[in-house]
Amino acid sequence: MAMNTLKSFNFNENRTFGVEIEFNGISSETAIQAIRTAGITIYKEGYNHSTRPHWKLVTDASVNNRGTGLARGGWEVVSPKLTGKQGLVELATVMKALDQAGAKVDRSCGLHVHHDVTDYQVKDFQNIYYIYYKFENYFDSVVPASRRGSHNIYCKGINKEIIESVEKARTINDLRHSLPDRYLKLNFQSYFRHETIEFRQHSGTVDADKATNWVMFTQSIVERAKLETIRLAKKDHDRDAVTNFNHERRLRRTLFGEVTRESLENEYGQAIKFQIKRRQHFESQAA
Description:
Layout: E1 17-23, H1 28-37, E2 42-44, E3 55-60, E4 74-78, H2 84-101, E5 111-116, H3 122-134, H4 136-141, H5 160-168, H6 172-178, E6 186-187, H7 190-194, E7 196-199, H8 208-224, H9 244-256, H10 267-286
Parallel strand pairs: 2-3
Antiparallel strand pairs: 1-4, 1-5, 3-4, 5-7, 6-7
Helix pairs in contact: 1-2, 2-8, 3-5, 8-10
């Protein structure tokens, strides 16, 4: 496929995704009641990594316990497998219910998104890590400072050493050894438990627009990695672009083959436009 074919794609209705929403500020009873009132089936469970056919509420020891009634840790709402537009609607419904119930987030919270990658081969995994490595500075520009670089132990960056090891991989097992740490911004280890790739970098949120646009944006990365081979410049020219604006243009060219208004008209393009506004927001705060 030609690289610019992604500009004619829309959100892939067949690639399942899932989310983990970390938060505090309210009790489990309040969270459960709010989500059920919104028409979503959810159960409180003990901490587990099992995929359920329903939403579940579990404790998360990494989250601040403020307002939860817990002696330690906060809450995590985990989705079942979601699909397509209906999945986005369901995610937005849960987000709005939590927001209206008074759920809060802080630096201890994250929004983790899983995308099904059962159709991936080694080269596809290499491609997606190359994309993240090339444009990691741009990904950093659309999230708060607490989720940038490698400062957060739960979403560390993709460094040159990791990429050199990924480049040498010839099998899935090679990749497993190259990417043993599940606390990277892009977590390969989730493949062995859920057959997914996990995007861990987004900050905690109960904002429906932020969540749904992040799902679409990250799915565009997953889909692009299935197309033409991503090539790394020997001297990291893409990674070292001078400004976030330049990073943005290079990422758009990688995704859509061009940098035009027309290339942003599809659903992936709309998700990119949302991230552009996020970048501008954080830059205005830093000015």
